[in-house]
């Protein structure tokens, strides 16, 4: 029988198929799904996160590890009972209207997924009203708003206001990011936090949920 | 062997221009001649058929003598380290970069104040360079003020041998000191023959511009050749002061002086391991300041590699110094522009490439760390595009398609650790993060790295009983 330890190692190594196999073996052997997730799959990603911060692992390796983790998640998630959760929290993320920039937001989304969050990526060029709709529909814990252009920064503030007007602002924490964005700007527009990169965004999301 | 990088993609001269420089150089050596303040050397030149005016101490070389020397001088000289992966093979367009000297001041690592260099600095800089991977060789960079001229040679070489296994080159201050250094090297090597075969030390004994060989340096040069230790008779004319102000004119004179020393070595011992040593510099014509890092100096030093390649003799030149007193923007642009040019022309032995400020008079520990980075970047340029079908990455472009990303593409996974230079000093993080981390600049970071290395326990790299 495979052991949780092997799952951790396979996640770190980014072995997608092996993680799925090992997870299946554990399930077949009667291991609790919740254990497999928290100890094995997410446990592996915790190590990955630490190594990434220590500059030992590179971004692509983190993303592949996350992919490996998800291959295991896909197997155990359907087995969870109603009270149990596979996710560290739910995050709606998107780039504001008028901005077609994708890569920064995608990196943040992938890093958050890697940390066990359920990420609903609503895409690029998203009007404020669509952010509101996505919040109503998905009931996330956190909303992530991205902008790269200085010309689209005002749209971030509009998005925050739209969430307020719709009466859903207090249900969520709002984090913002993008090259021209700063902590001060985040405070000004009434966001709850700012993260310059995916790794900081992950830490911030954990703080919000805790 | 140390990892070798190839230059040669940058050219300043066409073939016809190289030949014209050669013709003028032969004319200088035949018609103008070189003053040699050394009786023994004058006798040797006369005995071998040079035209010697003993009254004026002028030696004029027949063209054939110069051309024969170019023939007998080795096309490749291997300078050995004391570890197998530290040997450097000088010749062709192989490029290696390392330290140079001789500075007399240092910016103290803790106080930042300028002070005189000491015996301890020789040891510490050697230890630092031993741990800076991009630096290929160690030219003893400072004069130990506490040692005095009489003890300088032993202290400079012995402290270096104790702290680095990279190839060590240096000038000497006394004949007696030079003898002690070679005798110790023979003991370390095991025998005189083994030292000749695998020389891990070498010497610099310069010729003065314009066209003058000083008495003592002539002896040091000769003694090195006689003991079979590689030597370079470098020349460092100052364009506008001790050589013509025109760049081609200074190059003709530089070439004449360098070839004169090559010829001298081959008269002493045909096949002697010698480098073609050129360090053309400039003067600021407004102030008379000596410039060791002007852009023209960079051009001339780099261009001389083309002459060395024409002669098929390994070249020693200078690039990567700064004239600045502070470690500042001038430091960066002078060092990088000069270094890259010399690397790109394929200069074999680029010395003075680490640590030096203040026109070569002052060093700083953190500057060695910064320059290690610059040398690494220059080597990255020499690595080039590494063109291949796989690196054209068509399959990945096709697979990712419009709007996707390459973060986990096959080529990304394969090359992410090697395609880009691993820069330790750059700053591109978020502004707030940077402030939070102490708002360090490259110099601050370099100081930290230098301290870390210097605080490590020193390994015993040599049996110190061999050094006495």
TL;DR?
Chain A has nine helices and five strands, in the order ααααβαβαβαβαβα. Chain A is α/β, with parallel strands linked by helices and 210 residues long.
| Largest beta sheet: strand ordering of chain B | 1-7-20-19-16-14-12-11-10
What percentage of residues of chain B falls in helices of 4 or more residues? 40-55%
C-alpha Rg of chain A (nearest Å)? 18 Å
User: Which series of helices and strands of chain A comes N to C?
Assistant: HHHHEHEHEHEHEH
Q: What's the CATH first level of the largest domain in chain A?
A: Alpha Beta
**Major β-sheet of chain A, in short?**
5 strands, parallel
Features:
heterodimer, A: alpha/beta, Rossmann fold, five-stranded parallel β-sheet, 9 helices, B: TIM Barrel, nine-stranded mixed β-sheet
What does this structure look like?
The complex is a heterodimer of chains A (about 210) and B (about 475). Chain A is α/β, with parallel strands linked by helices and about 210 residues long. Chain A has 2 domains: about 5-80, Methionine synthase domain (Methyltransferase, Methionine Synthase (B12-binding Domains), Chain A, domain 1); about 90-210, 3-Layer(aba) Sandwich (Rossmann fold), CATH 3.40.50.280. Chain A is about 55% helix and about 15% strand. Chain A is built from 9 helices and 5 strands. In chain A, strands 2-1-3-4-5 form a 5-stranded parallel sheet, sandwiched between helices. In chain A, α5 (about 105-115) packs across α9 (about 200-210). The model of chain A has no long low-confidence stretch (mean pLDDT about 90). Chain B has a domain at about 5-15 and about 70-385: TIM Barrel (Alpha-Beta Barrel). Chain B has 17 helices and 22 strands. In chain B, α4 (about 120-130) runs parallel beside α5 (about 150-165) and α5 (about 150-165) packs parallel to α6. The model of chain B has no long low-confidence stretch (mean pLDDT about 95). The interface of A and B includes residues 110 and 182 of A.
């Amino acid at each position: 029988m495979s052991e949780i330890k092997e799952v951790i190692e396979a996640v770190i190594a980014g072995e997608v198929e092996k993680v799925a196999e090992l997870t299946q073996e554990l399930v077949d052997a009667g291991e609790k799904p919740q254990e497999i997730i928290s100890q094995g799959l997410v446990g592996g990603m915790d190590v990955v996160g630490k190594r990434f911060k220590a500059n030992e692992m590179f971004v692509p390796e983190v993303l592949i590890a996350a992919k490996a983790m998800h291959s295991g998640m896909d197997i155990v998630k359907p087995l969870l009972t109603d009270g149990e959760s596979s996710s560290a929290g739910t995050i709606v993320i998107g780039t504001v209207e008028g901005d077609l920039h994708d890569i920064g937001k995608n990196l943040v989304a992938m890093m958050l997924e890697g940390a066990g969050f359920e990420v609903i990526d609503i895409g690029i060029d998203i009007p404020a009203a669509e952010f509101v709709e996505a919040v109503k529909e998905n009931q996330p814990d956190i909303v992530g708003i991205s902008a790269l252009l200085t010309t689209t920064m005002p749209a971030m503030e509009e998005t925050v206001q739209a969430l307020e007007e719709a009466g859903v602002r207090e249900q969520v924490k709002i984090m913002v990011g993008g090259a021209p964005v700063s902590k001060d700007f985040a405070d000004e527009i009434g966001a709850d936090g700012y993260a310059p990169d995916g790794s900081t965004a992950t830490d911030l999301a954990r703080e919000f949920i805790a | 062997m140390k990892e070798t990088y190839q230059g040669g993609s940058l050219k300043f001269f066409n073939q016809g221009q190289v030949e014209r420089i050669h013709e003028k150089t032969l004319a200088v050596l035949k018609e103008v001649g070189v003053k040699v303040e050394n009786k023994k050397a004058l006798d040797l030149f006369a005995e071998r058929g040079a035209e010697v005016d003993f009254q004026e101490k002028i030696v004029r070389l027949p063209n054939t003598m110069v051309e024969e020397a170019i023939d007998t001088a080795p096309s490749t000289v291997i300078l050995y380290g004391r570890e197998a992966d530290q040997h450097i093979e000088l010749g062709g367009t192989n490029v290696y970069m390392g330290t140079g000297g001789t500075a007399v001041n240092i910016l103290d690592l803790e106080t930042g104040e300028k002070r005189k260099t000491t015996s301890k600095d020789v040891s510490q800089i050697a230890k630092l360079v031993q741990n800076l991977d991009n630096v290929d060789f160690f030219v003893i960079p400072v004069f130990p003020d506490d040692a005095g001229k009489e003890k300088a040679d032993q202290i400079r070489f012995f402290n270096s041998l104790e702290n680095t296994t990279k190839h060590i080159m240096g000038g000497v201050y006394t004949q007696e000191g030079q003898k002690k250094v070679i005798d110790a090297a023979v003991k370390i090597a095991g025998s005189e023959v083994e030292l000749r075969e695998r020389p891990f030390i070498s010497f610099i004994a310069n010729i003065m511009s314009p066209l003058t060989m000083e008495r003592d340096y002539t002896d040091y040069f000769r003694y090195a050749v006689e003991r079979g230790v590689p030597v370079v008779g470098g020349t460092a004319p100052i364009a506008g002061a001790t050589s013509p102000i025109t760049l081609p004119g200074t190059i003709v004179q530089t070439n004449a002086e360098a070839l004169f020393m090559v010829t001298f070595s081959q008269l002493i011992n045909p096949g002697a391991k010698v480098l073609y040593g050129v360090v053309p510099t400039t003067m600021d014509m407004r102030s008379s300041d000596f410039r060791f890092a002007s852009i023209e100096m960079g051009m001339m030093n780099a261009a001389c590699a083309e002459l060395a390649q024409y002669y098929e003799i390994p070249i020693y030149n200078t690039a990567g110094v700064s004239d600045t007193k502070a470690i500042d923007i001038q430091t960066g642009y002078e060092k990088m522009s000069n270094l890259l040019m010399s690397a790109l022309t394929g200069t074999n032995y680029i010395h003075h490439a680490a640590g030096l400020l203040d026109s070569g008079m002052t060093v700083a520990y953190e500057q060695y760390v910064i320059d290690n980075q610059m040398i690494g970047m220059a080597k990255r340029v020499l690595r080039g595009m590494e063109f291949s079908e796989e690196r054209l990455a068509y399959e990945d472009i096709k697979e990712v398609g419009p709007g996707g990303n390459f973060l986990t593409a096959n080529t990304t996974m394969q090359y992410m650790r090697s395609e880009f230079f691993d820069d330790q000093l750059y700053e591109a993080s978020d502004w707030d993060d940077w402030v939070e981390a102490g708002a360090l600049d490259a110099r601050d970071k370099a100081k930290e790295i230098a301290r870390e290395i210097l605080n490590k326990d020193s390994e015993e790299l040599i049996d110190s009983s061999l050094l006495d």
